[in-house]
TrEMBL record:
GO terms for biological process: polyphosphate biosynthetic process. The lineage of its organism: Bacteria, Bacillati, Actinomycetota, Actinomycetes, Micrococcales. CDD domains: PLDc_PaPPK1_C1_like, PLDc_PaPPK1_C2_like. Belongs to the polyphosphate kinase 1 (PPK1) family. Its cofactor is Mg(2+). It comes from Leucobacter viscericola. ATP binds at residues 57, 483, 579, 607. Catalyzes the reversible transfer of the terminal phosphate of ATP to form a long-chain polyphosphate (polyP). This is Polyphosphate kinase.
Length: 707
């Protein structure tokens, strides 16, 4: 029997039900977000924020994942499913589970968070609760700021049913013509550029503040929109559309033009979910279902208010007592000023020793941003190369690259314009970079460039030196404050050569598979991970030290999962830390007794990826951009870099110890695939939060270094 045949046979010996459906697993992740909103120990405005995150997450889930699944079913395309069930049955389960979660989400707001906020002095009120003075203030605000931008659209034989844009909040309005006694229907879009929650009080203090929902305010001013008509009733609805993009790339078509055409098509994607207020009349309901041509299982009847992502607006309320205690990122000790008057030299710090930064506990601004900004102004820097997946148009990173190009340096920016939902923004600032003289390239046909790399070429003592940063997160100063990520700064010649090779692949016609400290997808990463997993299994069978620790956003790749099952069965202890989708089963007798799975959610979004292998005591630990998904391993340019500094390895070990400790709050996967949150110790005490522990750990470490 050949080695390949033996591997297949071994995989075939695993049970057919060994995977958890990826879409239902994603819904389980969003349920964990909801559980944070339901947690009375979390500050109230943060609970409101988690309700908004849940709603925003679910919108994207329907726009992309459910939409893609339904499109494949309708068109007869092959549907990727790893659970051996009919795709239509999976879609039915998704809709049922998502609807149950949305009802639970609505109850959490109406029955828990909203009353608790009101008791704390942050009230969302209805029109009937206001006195005449309040109503006069709001009516004046409405007439000057809202009424001029409203566009009621009639629906009758002369006015066909209007196009309804995705995710917009809409009002269905029935009016009676007193002359003919005929009932007419109109649709009114709630303006998206106006704050969803309008402040009733104009006082500066936020100790006792009231808001009214924008749609509630508009609903009580409808007589002025339909003069001479009798307003019978009004209801709220919104539709989610298919915004899953399919870009057909070839060698002859301009990628930007193809993308712009697809962005236009996205606006008119078919409806995938219809949300209705539960007081809607049957006539309006029948009209909407008919006009949207939508299945019954895609209709979600919910208590008002719809679209709780609007609760993000409450984050502006200045009530520190209702929010997480502020945390100011510390500057990494290696990048601190030696004196108040001296400017830190990032290059000198990196040249002395590799530096591992951990955001947002350690500052992005004083590390990554400072690195690029110093490179832009340093006269000894000859060239800067950088990948950009998601950033902001006003980013200081973009400004630094433009300044470097204008100063005459060679600057290469590899911009991934296909980054989902950032396509338009990326096209815009990519053109600004081009106009400034930056060499902008858009990656390889058929592959997304998702790796996070900066390379600076500096002339020192008559020789060229490579300064590199390889990270797990995007070069985005805004998200760096809420995304947890690692980044490695190094002058290692090995890494410098590796990164140079990779940029040549990305910008030219090179085909490279020979790297020293990097694992690169799609040609090397999958094989490299599988080789290391099998090596751990061989060590376990030989009685040698073995172990695997993984941290990722998502784990769905069946080949990797099967390799982990087999390694666990060989005796390898495996710890998996996942934020979102997880298709592997943990702790199942006969399948995965040696596999533990944890999930951590909190004020920061766990985003770093870590891959650690015991390797008989010669540990190999990698950080990078790749998740364990088909797209990351096979259809993207991804990079992992090996961590070799003992201090850095110790930091990562400590990070995992926090996550898998029974004395730290987390979710753990049970053998049946469900998740159990553990927040209370056996002694009845509230368990500490992992992210709070890391904050303290980083702050104390910085203080020790300073002393």
């Amino acid at each position: 029997m050949s080695e390949q045949t033996r591997d297949v046979a071994t995989r075939d010996s695993l049970p057919a039900d060994r995977y958890i459906d990826r879409e239902l697993s994603w819904l389980a992740f969003n349920q964990r977000v909801l559980e944070l909103a339901e947690d009375p120990t979390i500050p109230l405005l943060e609970r409101a924020n988690f309700l908004a995150i849940f709603a925003s997450n679910l919108d994207e889930f329907f726009m992309v994942r459910v939409a893609g699944l339904k499109r494949r079913i309708v068109t007869g395309l092959a549907v990727p499913t790893n659970v051996g069930r009919a795709p239509t049955d999976v879609l039915e389960d998704i809709n049922r589970t998502a609807y149950e979660l949305q009802l639970r989400h609505a109850r959490c707001f109406v029955e828990q968070v909203q009353p608790a906020l009101a008791e704390a002095g942050v009230r969302i009120v209805e029109w009937e609760q206001l006195d005449n003075a309040d109503r006069e203030i709001l009516t004046d605000y409405y007439e000057h700021n809202i009424y001029p931008v409203l566009m009621p659209l009639a629906v009758d034989p002369a006015h066909p049913f209007p196009y309804i844009s995705g995710r917009a909040l809409n009002m269905s309005i029935r009016v009676r013509n007193p002359r003919t006694d005929k009932i007419e229907f109109a649709r009114l879009k709630v303006p998206q550029m106006i704050p969803r929650y309008v402040r009733v009080d104009r006082r500066e203090s936020d100790d006792n503040v009231r808001f009214i929902a924008l749609e509630e305010l508009i609903a009580n001013q409808l007589d002025g929109l339909f003069p001479g008509m009798e307003v019978i009733d009004d209801h709220v609805f919104r539709v989610t559309r298919n915004e899953d993009m399919e870009i057909e790339e070839d060698e002859t078509e301009n990628l930007i033009q193809a993308l712009e055409k697809e962005l236009l098509r996205r606006r008119f994607g078919p409806p995938i979910r219809l949300e209705l207020s539960d007081d809607m009349d049957e006539a309006t309901l029948d009209l909407l279902v008919s006009e949207f041509d939508i299945d019954e299982q895609q209709v979600y009847t919910l208590p008002s208010p719809l679209d709780l992502s609007g609760l993000f607006a409450l984050g502006g309320v200045q009530r520190p007592d209702l929010k997480f205690k502020p945390h100011i990122p510390v500057t990494h000790p290696k990048f601190r000023k030696s004196s108040p008057s001296e400017k830190p030299d990032i290059f000198a710090a990196i040249a002395r020793r590799e530096v591992l930064v951990h955001h947002p506990y350690e500052s992005f601004a004083t590390s990554v941003q400072a690195f690029v900004e110093q490179a832009a102004t340093d006269p000894d820097v000859l060239a800067i190369k950088q990948t950009l997946y998601r950033t902001s148009g006003d980013s200081p990173i973009i400004a630094a690259l433009i300044a470097a190009a204008e100063a005459g340096k060679q600057v290469l920016a590899l911009v991934e314009v296909k980054a989902r939902f950032d396509e338009e923004a990326n096209i815009s600032w990519a053109r600004k970079l081009e106009q400034a003289g930056v060499h902008v390239v858009y990656g390889l046909v058929g592959l997304k460039t998702h790796c996070k790399l900066v390379q600076v070429i500096r002339q020192e003592g008559g020789q060229l030196k490579h300064y590199c940063h390889i990270g797990t997160g995007n070069y985005n100063p805004k998200t760096s404050r809420i995304y947890e990520d690692f980044g490695l700064f190094t002058t290692s010649p090995e890494v410098g050569r590796d990164v140079t090779k990779l940029f040549n692949v990305l910008s030219g016609y090179a085909i490279e598979t020979d790297y020293d400290r990097l694992l690169v997808a799609p040609l090397q990463l999958r094989a490299g991970l599988l080789e290391r997993i099998e090596r751990e299994a061989e060590n376990a069978r030989a009685g040698l030290p073995s172990g695997i620790k993984l941290k990722a956003n998502s784990m769905v790749d069946e080949v990797i999962i099967d390799a982990l099952y087999l390694a666990g069965q060989a005796g390898v202890p495996i710890e998996i830390w996942v934020r979102g989708i997880c298709s592997i089963r943990a702790g199942v007798p006969g399948l995965s007794e040696n596999i533990q799975v944890r999930s951590v959610l909190g004020r920061y979004l766990e985003h770093s990826r870590i891959y650690a292998f015991e390797n008989n005591g010669n540990r190999e630990v990698f950080i990078g951009s790749a998740d364990l998904m088909h797209r990351n391993l096979d259809r993207r340019i991804e990079v992992l870099v090996r961590i070799i500094d003992r201090e850095h390895l110790g930091r990562i070990d400590r990070f995992f110890e926090f996550a898998f400790s029974d004395d730290v709050s987390s979710w753990r996967m049970l053998p049946d695939g469900t998740w159990q949150r553990r927040v209370i110790s056996e002694e009845g005490e509230l368990l500490p939060d992992l992210q709070d522990l890391v904050m303290l750990d980083r702050t104390e470490a910085g203080s020790r270094r300073a002393r």
